[in-house]
Amino acid sequence: MQHISVNVDGTQYEGDVEPRTLLVHWLRNEVGKVGTVVGCDTSNCGACTILMNGRSVKSCSVLAVQADGASVTTIQGISTGDDWHPVQTAFKECHGLQCGYCTPGMVMSAIDLLGENPNPSEAEIREGLEGNLCRCTGYHNIVRSVEKAAELMGGAK
Amino acid sequence: MTETIDTSTPLGRPIKRKEDAKLLHGRTNWTDNIQLPGTLHMAILRSPYAHAKITKLDVTPALSRPNVIAAYGADELGDLNGSIPCVWPVVDDIVMPDFPSLAKGVVRHVGDCVAVVLATDPVHAADALEAIEVDYEPLPAVVNMQDAIKGGTLVHEDAANNVCYNYPFATGENYDDVKAKADVVVTRQWANQRLIPAFMEPRSVVAAPMGMSDEMTVWSSTQIPHVLRVLMALVTGIPENNLRIIAPDVGGGFGGKLQLYREEVLVTQLARKLGRPVKWTETRSEDMVATHHGRDHIQTIEIAATKDGKILGLKVHLLADMGAYLQIITPGIPILGMFMYPAIYKMDAYDFHCTGVFTNKTPTDAYRGAGRPEATYAIERIVDELAAELDMDPMELRKKNWIKHEEFPFTTVAGLTYDTGNYEAATAKALDLFGMDELRAEQKRRRESGDTVQLGIGISTFTEMCGLAPSRTLGALKYVAGGWEHATIRMLPTGKVELVTGTSPHGQGHETAWSQIASSILGIPVEDIEVVHSDTGRAPYGMDTYGSRSLAVGGQAIKKAAENLIEKARIIAAHQLECSPGDLEFVGGEFKVKGDPEKAQAIGAVAFEAFTAHNLPDGVEPTLQGEATVDPEDFSYPHGTHLAAMEVDTETGKVTLRKYVAVDDVGNQVNPMIVEGQVHGGLAQGIGQALYEGAFYDEDGLPLNANLSTYLIPAAPDLPSFITDRTTTPSTTHPLGTKGVGEAGAIASTPAIINGIVDALRPMGVTDVAMPATPMTVWKTIQSANQAAKGGQA
Fold first, then answer.
1. Whole domain around residue B525: which residue ranges?
2. Mutation test of the interface with chain A: which of B25, B685, B724, choosing the one with the most A Cβ atoms within 10 A?
3. Phi and psi, residue B233, nearest 5°
4. What is the Cα–Cα distance from B477 to B642, expressed in whole angstroms?
């Protein structure tokens, strides 16, 4: 077992983990961040995407021990629930989700995408979200959501 | 009679979804989130072979592994090794082999369940699988249906030639007589390939014996908690009244969670045996071999027509891959499709035959559209081929043969009566949005200049049957359940409303849409209505969500329940207002005395009177609620015209979907935003079949792409934005005038895409492209056509 200390959504968590434990499993099972979900076992689907030190990563592709000392933000940390992050607002406004299972990862990837490129074209949005699979929406309204979020965040036209 | 939708109510408006707040903030309750004290986690040893005898199985070494509590093979499980029932024996002499939860001596597909380990955590349960001692004697695998029906190796000893059933169906005039009169007969054979539902939330199930009671609560990521309860009771022997099935937040289904899975039975049986909670969550790679697959038909289709393009008859012979076992409705899927091959076209004869075939592959069952996409693909493709044969414009050929709007209601050669439709209107709108003339002009330019990138235009003028279904019809088709739906609406004393539905959403937005329906009738704000669903303890009656039935059938029940509630409230209000019930009109949530609008009582006030019961008329029971259980009058027949502009790079085989127009007619819409979202998602899955997806096996029956790295579900860059619109021809058999929409996009889009690719390449001699039309497949098709052309010239 190895000792780790990770800031998750603003709170510092300490714990002992097996070296093989994936960050997503530690977040879900030990920290209770069940808003972050697992959709595959080949790091293709992106449902588990979080921000680690401000950049998006698939938390199934990071060992918990690699997150030692890091700052992690999950879908549960971007707003309190009473308030909404502009990306969350935009996804609701534009019907950018149906079953909602890919949504936590999609929102976190979109936040990172807009941080890097505040005014992305449709093609840039589609390329930027390539690592996040959705089976419900056909992506049409996810693209509209990210465009809307860019507007809400002051990036777009 | 249908009703005009009143724009002063929430009905028909694109209201933002109630469901989204929790989903967007991660405050979700997926089954895998459930962590009960003392839970044992189940891991499953699955067959690595497509077909083998189990010559040795010893689970005891696993018991000495860390944290392991129990391990079972079929022998150890004994009577608890329940078998999965098939509830759709489509013909009397169908072969229905035993389908035990754990294989008994023989494994029949990669992923077949062999043994289970239970440990106090999921990691050690999975680790301990390697300690199980198991030996297999591999047997030849039955992989290809055309070989399978010749006999030889049998998947099941009692299924001669691997045939599960034969289903003949001939209607109208004699097909051969009609064919003899035809000037043109076009015959084709197509593989409608095997697909994997690949909902984003992997399946998960938790079963827990609840304290001192006999109740067993089962949480499952399922589309069908109510049907599951009945089947689970039958399989396990647990009294149905002691079973509570809950489908918490469910992350997509697309038919893949319309099932009783063996893992659900195992978890429930082991929770009962061990007296503590048991949980199992599949990995994605397990999902791809253990969750049922869809499609996998070989279609031989023949169309007979006159030289001026009048369709005379249609003959369809199917081989339908059942896979290794029958899941709950496996045999019925091609039969649902059977009705839809004649589609929107008038003709005199229809001759259908389906052979269900066992193979050593994952069982098939419902996947978005379930039989109708296969049928629609075949008919819309063959109509294009007939047009090419006749040198007619494919749209003109369709117009010549489709049912005209003034001819509805129309009984098709397959025996269905379509209530309404307007193919002319949907097509006119689609052509306008598409810019057909400009695109045909560009296609001509590219052809004439010999451009390496050719343009093709794909058409699909589809209809489908959904809204499953009139119970008597299901009975006539030998389906063992009904197709009704239930709703209860309760007015609470504080003015809030509980709307209990038997539908079971997993992404469709029922909480929002059902609130809109009830709000429009009761005059209660949408936000004051809570939709209760997917828990047999709280919503005891229902037939769940599949077959685009939830609005088409469940919506009717909500409307009728609300109306029943108002009728009771009217009696109470009349008593309070000292008038007769006939003197009251109900407008905007208030009962008003006709001619004396000052005298009024709001429905919430009536609910409070019904709660206190201080001053009710004699014979009226306290509480205010309305209930309804509705059996639909008929299926629902949405339709539409879809057009695709396909660019094909003739040097590389790369295909680009440049423009996609979908004009759907789903009758009246409750929430057009949700309707459009359903269309978008269906399009992605239908286009996925055409261009990207397919579950493939090698000659030994080993899956070649059973994970999300190699099974390509479309990602964002693989699809364009869609141009969608609607025409509105209200249903006359459904009281809200609505039609189903959940499957339409998936049904319509696949042939539009392939017709577009073939249209681009037809001048090169191409008449077909196999699915999925990957660059390699398209490139090889072009090469073969070039070779044939050279051969022809030599």
1. 20-27+484-630
2. B25
3. -65, -45
4. 31
Measured between beta carbons, the chain B residues lying within 8 angstroms of A79 are 25
Q: Is the pLDDT of residue B456 over 50?
A: yes
Q: What is the pTM of this model?
A: 0.97
Q: Give me B425's structure tokens.
A: 């209107």
Interface of A with B in 104-133 (CB under 8 A): 104, 107, 122-123, 125-127, 129-133
- Which regions of chain A carry the CATH code 1.10.150.120? 86-152
Among residues B458, B386, B430, B377, the alpha carbon closest in space to that of B753 is found at: B458
Asked if residue B191 is part of any domain, the answer here is no
Bridge partners for B501 per DSSP: B487
The helix (run of H) or strand (run of E) holding residue B470 is none
Token couple for B779: 């490139």
Residue among B463, B442, B446, B466 at smallest CA distance from B454: B446
What would the two tokens of residue A147 be? 């465009």
Percent of chain B with pLDDT over 90: 97
Q: Does A19 touch chain B (CB under 8 A)?
A: no
Element (DSSP H or E) covering residue B127: helix B122-128
**Distance of alpha carbon B707 from alpha carbon B709, whole angstroms:** 5
Asked if B714 and B754 sit in the same domain, the reply is: yes
Q: Does A75 touch chain B (CB under 8 A)?
A: yes
Indicate the number of domains in chain B: 3
Packed helices B262-274 and B225-236: angle between N→C axes, nearest 10 degrees: 60
Within 10 Å of residue B589's Cβ, how many Cβ atoms?
A: 15
pLDDT band at B1 (very low <50, low <70, confident <90, very high): very low
Q: Which CATH class is domain A86-152?
A: mainly alpha
Is the ipTM above a cut-off of 0.90?
yes
Kindly state the average pLDDT of the residues B301-309. Answer: 98
pLDDT for residue B350: 98
Which of B16, B252, B677 is facing A92, going by the closest CB pair?
B16
Residues B95 and B234 in one domain: yes
Measure in Å the smallest separation between the Cα of A5 and chain B Cα atoms: 22
Residue B762: helix, strand or coil by DSSP? Answer: helix
CATH superfamily of the A2-77 domain? Beta-grasp domain (3.10.20.30)
Number of CB atoms found within 10 A of residue A3's CB: 10
For position B615, which CATH number holds? 3.30.365.10
Selected residue of B29, B36, B200, B250 to mutate for chain A interface (largest A Cβ count, 10 A): B200
Which tokens belong to B198?
Answer: 């690949």
Contact between residue B366 and residue B336 where contact means Cβ atoms under 8 Å apart = no
Per mean pLDDT, which range of A30-34, A78-82, B24-28 is the poorest? A78-82
Number of H helices, E strands in chain A: 5, 5
Q: What is the pLDDT of residues A75-107, one digit of tens each?
A: 999 998 789 999 999 999 999 999 999 999 999
